[in-house]
Here is the input.
Amino acid sequence: MPLGVITYLGSVITAHQPRRAPNTGATPSQGAPPWLEKSLTVLKPGGLAVSVVGPPDAGFAKQLGAPSFMGLIMNTLSRKVRKQAKSLGVRYEFFFMQANGSQLRKLAALYDSGELRPVIDRTFPFDRTLEAMAYVEQGRTKAGKVVVSMAPDNA
Here is the structure.
């Protein structure tokens, strides 16, 4: 799977929002298909939804070097989400992240160029970690990651 079209660095869009994410946005799934399907709606037409835990697709089978029939099986597993993505004018791909220096350098370059932008919902200082966890557990996140920062508040 070519990394030129994937812009993923752990950013997560977790709730239905108006279409406002960049065309190269990524919305990794948290595993539940309804969540992933909702995530597709935040991308602009032409965008790419990338899941690191959602249903695999034929591209993943190819990445593994699996026989072609495995691609058909994996496409069947991801049929519903790919169909919804197509109806919204976006694309869906499964991405298997592995410890690979070449991939990480490409991701770093995308981030450094500004093409990859993590989505942050809210940042909490370290001494409010419990509040940050409660914020996530109560489903109060609107879009993006909740970050716990080790830096002082005024930094």
Observations:
- Helices lie at 33-40, 58-64, 68-77, 79-87, 101-113, 129-137.
